[in-house]
Write a structure and sequence with these properties.
The protein is an all-beta fold. About 0% of the residues lie in helices and about 30% in strands. The strands form 2 sheets. The protein has a 5-stranded antiparallel sheet with strand order 6-5-4-3-7, with no helix packed on it. A two-stranded antiparallel sheet has the order 1-2. Strand 5 and strand 6 form a beta hairpin. It is elongated and about 40 Å long.
């Protein structure tokens, strides 16, 4: 068990990031990268691709939301290796921002949830030098 088959690698591409303090991190899964101003949806739906911290551990593994518990604070996640976890706290799940603002997303910064700050470019495409 433990979601080990996912290896902590997200769906799709990975990116090398340079943070404002000069630190560099390579191999960051796309699911963890957002353009400046984007936020994750507050609640998730069945079929949403995610990374979740299996058993509340430190490492996140690729998976899919199978269903949601009432109230949107816990989810059943099926991991890429076939393991399932029945009641994962939303705080332990990383979700991909949508290309369009989600009606159920919340922002504590006042930024538009998953808004497209770069006109005419899908949120899934990044260019060298983009602020994320």
């Amino acid at each position: 068990g433990g979601g080990g088959g996912g290896g902590g690698v997200g769906f799709g591409s990975t990116y090398a990031l340079r943070y404002e303090d000069g630190d560099v991190e390579a191999g960051v899964p796309r699911i963890r990268v957002r353009l400046s101003g984007q936020v994750e949806p507050a609640t998730l739906e069945a079929g949403c691709r995610v990374e979740a911290r299996f058993g509340g551990g430190k490492k996140a593994f690729s998976g899919v939301v199978v269903n949601a518990w009432p109230g949107g604070k816990h989810y059943m996640v099926e991991y890429a290796d076939g393991d399932k976890e029945a009641k994962v706290n939303r705080e332990l799940i990383f979700a991909q921002c949508d290309d369009e603002p989600a009606a159920n997303a919340e922002s504590t910064t006042g930024a538009a949830p998953c808004a497209e700050p770069v006109a005419a470019r899908a949120a899934s495409n990044f260019a060298v030098g983009d602020a994320v």
